[in-house]
TrEMBL record:
Protein name: F-box domain-containing protein
Cited InterPro entries: LRR_dom_sf (IPR032675)
One GO cellular component term: SCF ubiquitin ligase complex
Gene3D superfamilies, per the entry: Ribonuclease Inhibitor
GO terms, biological process: SCF-dependent proteasomal ubiquitin-dependent protein catabolic process
């Protein structure tokens, strides 16, 4: 093993790609020179640090110290994700970021000459200096007129926090002229104004646009209408928390699209989305993510002594609006309008929904039209009737990922139904946040319950439970009732080893 003289060198990188944990790769690099040369590019091709990582801020400083002092290692970085505050705005101790530390960060970025994707999304962490470094330009305003003439770097994907005040100059974004993906969280008005000009510059290459707000009124139909002519090549279009966007703005973007949207996310937009008619550009739609609109508007205050009638009116309005909304979705998702749909995600951000005829009808229509193609169904803050779950598991024979909410006490019943989903690889089960135990505590899915559930499912393809548990199988030898030794497969849950975080958990929706 120390020298592996018979191992073809070109095979080794393929083997190393199956080692998910960083510390596995660091040990592999110590085997010999051949292993070192094959391991280092794999070890450094991506760097992601999240706020929940232990000593994450210190790790950021150590990472950039390495990238600054070792350009030969920095050139292997392809994906860089900074999800924690590194520039001291609030909770980062000022004494930890010295002038030398800031210098390392900027020089480390400049050394990442093959960087393809950069994520810098924590509020208060993005500065003009970092943008200059990503542009591989001097950190001075005097240099900005000459930025466009700098050599075209490899960066193709940029995800940033759009809160720019006292942090960065939004006009610097106009110098990123070669991007295929833009994602902006909480953009300010100035950033949105720059975005309208930016997408015009990028109209030849931009294929993905993701805007995430928190009920911001800044992005409107007029904003989308102005940008629409520049978005003709979009394949991925996602809006979150944009209540001023209606069917008019969405229709403007979709009507300009030339090849058909592949992934569409409309979360927290105007309830008037129900007026969106079936679109010709849905013919290439692979993934659809939706949130339900507010379903319980407040009618006039009830007369004294008539609270029961008041509640009845509220429930009738909610059921009526939900029925109208799900009927519209069903018409949008008929197989002739979206013949290639593979992923469907829906959730309720405003109120927890119990099973009802409207949602059951929606999911039955979804299974009827797309059951032979669906690979992912994700449902949050909504309960689905157990009979509907049976239909999903038995008729969606390509289903690989299932995210759902069930009431405590239904795990055993769910396991029997899940058994029919033979292709299922990932399942995540939540209890309602409103659910409580008999003693009044919050209902939480315990590890022992999860293990028992996975064993009852008896799905040979199941490999992941939730966002942090991997399904492990091993062959053990036991004695049966007759005293004979037999081999059995033992199933257990262990830590999730991949550095990739499932999409559903990057932005908390439930």
């Amino acid at each position: 093993m120390a020298s592996c003289p018979d191992l073809p060198p070109e095979i080794l990188p393929e083997i190393l790609r199956h080692l998910p944990k960083v510390h596995h790769l660091t040990r592999t690099a110590l085997v010999d020179h051949l292993f070192y040369q094959a391991t280092i590019p794999e070890l450094y091709k991506r760097a992601s640090i999240y706020s929940w990582h232990k000593e994450g801020k210190l790790k950021v400083l150590l990472l950039f110290r390495t990238l600054a002092s070792c350009p030969h290692l920095a050139r292997y970085i392809r994906r860089l994700g900074m999800h924690i505050p590194i520039l001291l705005i609030r909770d980062f101790p000022k004494h930890q970021l010295t002038d030398e530390g800031l210098k390392d960060i900027l020089q480390g970025l400049r050394n990442c000459t093959n960087l393809r994707s950069c994520t810098w999304t924590r509020d208060g962490s993005l500065t003009s200096g970092i943008l200059y470094a990503l542009l591989n330009a001097p950190s001075s305003p005097e240099a900005s007129p000459h930025l466009s003439s700098s050599p075209m770097p490899s960066l193709r994907e940029l995800e940033i926090n759009g809160h720019h005040v006292h942090l960065f100059d939004p006009k610097l974004l106009l110098h990123f002229r070669w991007l295929s993906k833009i994602s902006i969280i909480m953009p300010t008005l100035e950033v949105i104004q720059v975005l309208e000009e930016w997408v015009e510059i990028l109209q030849g290459t931009l294929t993905s646009l993701n805007l995430i707000c928190r009920t911001s009124p800044l992005i409107t139909d007029d904003t989308l209408i102005r940008m629409a002519p520049s978005l003709q090549n979009l394949e991925f279009f996602h809006l979150t928390g944009c209540p001023k966007v209606t069917h008019k703005g969405i229709r403007a973007v979709l009507s300009e699209n030339e090849n058909g949207i592949k992934s569409l996310g409309l979360e927290g937009v105007s309830p008037r989305l129900v007026h969106l008619n079936p679109q010709p550009t849905f013919h290439n739609l692979r993934s659809l993510t939706l949130s339900l609109p507010p379903l319980n508007p407040s009618p006039p205050p009830p007369p004294n002594g008539h609270h029961h009638n008041y509640t009845t009116i509220q429930r009738w309005i909610a059921r009526s609006e939900l029925s109208n909304y799900t009927s519209t979705l069903s018409s949008l998702l008929t197989s002739t309008n979206a013949p290639n749909l593979e992923q469907f995600q829906i959730y309720s951000p405003y109120m927890f929904l119990e099973p009802c005829d409207a949602t059951s009808t929606l999911f039955r229509a979804l299974v009827k039209d797309h059951g032979d193609r669906l690979k992912r169904i994700s449902v949050h803050r909504m309960l689905i009737d157990m009979d509907v779950i049976t239909e999903i598991c038995s008729r969606c024979f390509k289903l690989e990922e299932l995210f759902m909410v069930i009431e405590p006490g239904y795990l055993d019943d769910l396991a029997l139904r899940i058994h029919n989903a033979k292709s299922l690889r990932t399942i995540h089960v939540n209890y309602p946040l409103e659910a409580h135990t008999e003693d009044g505590g919050t209902a939480v899915l315990r590890l022992s319950e999860a293990v028992n559930f996975v064993r009852q499912c008896r799905n040979p393809s199941l490999t992941q439970f939730g966002c942090n548990a991997r399904v492990h199988r091993r062959i053990v030898e036991r004695e049966n009732d007759s005293g004979e030794k037999v081999k059995e497969i033992e199933i257990d849950l262990g830590p999730y080893e991949s550095p990739d975080v499932p999409e559903q958990f990057l932005v908390v929706r439930a």
